[in-house]
Specification:
single chain, about 450 residues, alpha+beta, six-stranded antiparallel sheet, five-stranded antiparallel sheet, 12 helices, 16 strands, about 40% helix
């Protein structure tokens, strides 16, 4: 048997929405005949209708499995000939007859329109209306084809519109994420979860990191829940161990795991997702090419199929999270080193202070310089102590040339506030939270 149109858009609802059922039933009503439209497998697309007298018997004929071979032979005949046919039917009634006309969509067989006559008078009317039925069926083929093509165009336009709205929302979120990353505020990334959750329309987002102290375990870093955080939500994510099997773990590490209505199995739903997950996306978090964890998007409420846009957005957001985490780790290490610097500076006899490169504001002074000045200058402009050397001030006495690429200046100058000449070593570096600063070390000229 040749293939028929199989598209969810051409369904009972589609035909009813476009009043095709009314056209078919009106024709049968005027002819006082029994009528039905069925697909290639014999499933009704337009419900059986006709005079009340034998409507029950007509229903039984349509549903009775013993007529399935007759229907299959009829369909093959219609597909091959592309013409309506008129025939007897062995239903125990010598006067009954039926006519069948094919309906094609875009040249492909779609359905069979059947008219049935139960008695002699109906049979005479069926014979007279057979040619008209054939013409109407051909017209219906054209009408349904046009309706189908229009629905495809409308569906594509709606899909494009939906994708545009989604991509616009995703772009705004990613821009906000970039701003948060560049500012060094990783917490702002997590504040975007409400926007992400609304855009993706998910129930949960969960971020896990590998537990370096316990191989095979994951630790919960943070999560977002549609109905808000709470003990009930958190209990769902407090795993004793990584409950994905090795094959799935490797799949996540290699690329990602995307499961939805299109590929979810009962075994996976019960054994892997504990029976309540309808769809899930899991993306690996890589920091400096090392697998560090995963970001999970979970749908528990409804069946769904993830779109390409949603998958791409989830992947990009995970990449952003990895970058934010890398910066946070760098900040942590940097701030830890700064603490060691300041502890060292406070025990040195040289005068040392740190100022912002952007405006010269003092953000640190060591104990020796504070004692010399009798107070600290934190929060004040440092240029009255030592002007900005990048402006090429005339009173710089000497400048020692350094090899290319060394971000340091050495010079000697008289400092009014200290009342003497000093050798000044100025270093450009990053301070707390990666802020650009200058460290100046002042040594009295001997």
């Amino acid at each position: 048997m040749k293939e028929s149109i199989r598209n969810s858009q051409i369904s009972k609802d589609f035909l009813m929405k476009n009043h095709v059922d009314e056209i078919v039933n009106s024709f049968a009503g005027v002819s006082e005949l029994y009528s039905v439209v069925v697909d290639i497998n014999g499933h009704t697309l337009v419900e059986p209708t006709g005079p009340a007298t034998y409507l029950g018997e007509f229903h039984e004929i349509i549903l009775n499995p013993k007529y399935s071979k007759l229907y299959a032979d009829t369909v093959n005949c219609l597909i091959d000939s592309k013409q309506a046919m008129y025939s007897e039917i062995d239903d125990g009634n010598p006067d009954s007859r039926f006519a069948a006309a094919p309906i094609f969509v875009k040249g492909t067989f779609y359905a069979t329109w059947i008219l049935y006559a139960h008695n002699k008078s109906q049979n005479q009317r069926l014979f007279k209306t057979f040619d008209h039925m054939s013409s109407v069926a051909k017209s219906l083929s054209d009408v349904i084809t046009r309706l189908y093509e229009d629905s495809i165009i409308a569906g594509e336009e709606e899909e494009i519109k939906t994708e545009y709205v989604f991509e616009h929302g995703a772009k705004d979120i990613m821009n906000n994420a970039l701003d948060a990353i560049y500012s060094g505020d990783r917490s702002s990334i997590f504040k975007l979860y409400d926007q992400v959750g609304e855009l993706l329309d998910v129930d949960y987002m969960v971020y896990y990191a590998i537990d370096t102290d316990r191989p095979g375990y994951m630790k919960l870093v943070d999560y977002w829940a549609k109905n808000g955080k709470g003990k009930e939500a958190e209990s769902k994510f407090a795993w004793d161990s990584d409950h994905y099997d090795i094959e799935i773990q490797n799949k996540i590490k290699k690329d990602c795991l995307v499961v939805d209505k299109s590929n979810m199995t009962n075994k996976m739903r019960v054994e892997v997702f504990q029976g309540n997950v309808k769809a899930i996306m899991v993306f690996p978090v890589y920091i400096r090419d090392q697998y560090q964890g995963r970001l999970i998007f979970i749908e528990n409420t409804k069946e769904r199929v993830w779109t390409e846009c949603e998958i791409a957005f989830g992947r990009e957001l995970t990449s952003m999270l990895a970058r934010a985490t890398a910066i946070q780790m760098r900040l942590y290490r940097g701030n830890k080193n700064i603490k060691l610097f300041t502890e060292l500076f406070d025990i040195l006899p040289e005068y040392i202070f740190v100022r912002r490169r952007i405006d010269g504001t003092v953000i640190y002074m060591n104990s020796a310089l504070k004692n010399k000045l009798g107070s600290d200058m934190i929060g004040q402009n440092s240029y009255r102590l030592i002007p900005n050397t990048r402006e090429g001030l005339e009173d710089i006495r000497t400048t020692q040339a350094l090899p290319l690429g060394v971000d340091k200046e050495l010079f000697t100058r008289y400092i009014d506030m200290l009342g003497a000449n000093f050798k000044v070593a100025q270093f450009n570096m990053r301070w707390k939270n990666l802020e650009k600063v200058e460290i100046l070390i002042l040594t009295p000229e001997s």
